[in-house]
Amino acid sequence: MFDHTYDNPVISGFHPDPSVCRVGDDYYLVCSSFEYFPGLPLFHSRDLVHWEQIGNVLDRPSQLPLPLPGSKASGGLYAPTIRHHDGFFWVVDTNVDGGGNFVVRAERPEGPWSDPVWIDVEGIDPDLAWEEDGACWCAFSGPAGGINLARIDPVEGTVLEGPFPTWSGSGLKYPEAPHLLRVGDWWYLLIAEGGTERGHAVSVARARSPRGPWEGAPGNPLLSHSGTGRPIQNTGHADLVQAPDGGWWMVLLGVRPRGFTPDVHVLGRETFLTPVEWDEDGWPVVAPVPERHRAPGGAWHPVPAPPARDDFDGTALAPHWISPFARPEGSWSLTERPGSLVLHATGPTLDTPGYTFVGRRQQHHECRVTALVDPGTGRGGLCVRLDEAHHYEVEVGDGEVRVVARIGPLSQTVAQRLAPPGPLTLGVTVRTSDLVPASPLLTGGHTTGPDTLAFWLGDPDAPGAHPLAELDGRYLSTEVAGGFTGRVIGMYATEGAVAFDWFAYTPAQDG
Q1: Is 17 one of the catalytic residues?
Q2: What is the pLDDT of residues 38-62, one digit of tens each?
Q3: Options 35, 59, 127, 176, the catalytic residue
């Protein structure tokens, strides 16, 4: 048998709050998606290392109400839990902008998933666990702090017992994200605390029954990188899974901050994997999350990387394409101009929710994005988005191409030039700052941020491309903008109809 190693993160880019379950030799993992539609990306793996997105749990508008006005960036869908029980896959989650806590289920992970069944409990980050007699427990972070527990009917959504308080953690702030698991004769309650920033941590308690009483582990927090110099930070919000060989593994979120102090992260909170041992007293033990580690034993199942270029030749968009808040019928089409994605403007600006945008998560610290755009009589282009108040874009319309930067309350056109008639290629490159020399295109001529974003008329790697502007990437970071998400790079239209013949996302080798 060959020994393999893996690199962290195992799912890069904005894929936070991972929850995992195993069914036979297959693993399934779901992540938070916040204000984006479709919601809750769903991944499959045979080895815990190589993950392929096989869909989204909530892919119908009826499943995901994110009403406007009212919904906001970093609202929407918070931390989900996925479990398999009694022949069904179950996902429980919170929609903070549209109804509260709910359960959906499916016979197959690819779906179709049911419409939400709403649960009458107040809080966030719900979890599901079943006793041997079929009793179903929902643990969640209560509105007054601490972890609450209720016995529910997951099919009807009714509360049968409780809710009542269980455990409030080891004393750190924001005890949340509970996962209730039965291991041997003990019930374990795994939680996040310390906040999802640099103080993030994983802690654990146990009891003989879900009703308690609960005792915290003497070594809590079980895991935290707070105050360390490790390149992976904000470690927390974990779930546990047992491999077929009996070994235990933890999936959790973390970030990879970069740049001059204070370090910032731009890819969002990502999914990491780390091994778990059990001590002689029956408590889980987790070492600091490694950048590289020996892989789980047994099967090794690499999956092909998604194609770098999407020519929009299919009948549906690939599952990694997402849109803020909604993707209304009539705002996009793959059939109106076969072989192209046509976007119809639903709002005149990217500064206010209600615009037409189709994008994908930035998953690498260095990458190149290009697209062939035909604006016709409309206006649109490529945008790097964090939220409505933090985004950069290169767009074409009215015979000109321009670069616009929105940072907080300020919006400025930083470059513009005449555009040639007909379809043209627009490009964005992202480079880490330690590789970026001083440039006259860069405001101030230098950067202390984590990366630099360059905007182009033409393919940046092809002869004849015109550099337009370079912007400091720190302003599109969570530490500047706030929130729970990461960068999303995509296509948009703010006037008329804009056709995209293809879109290409090419990562650098180092990721």
Answers
A1: yes
A2: 999 999 999 999 999 999 999 999 9
A3: 176
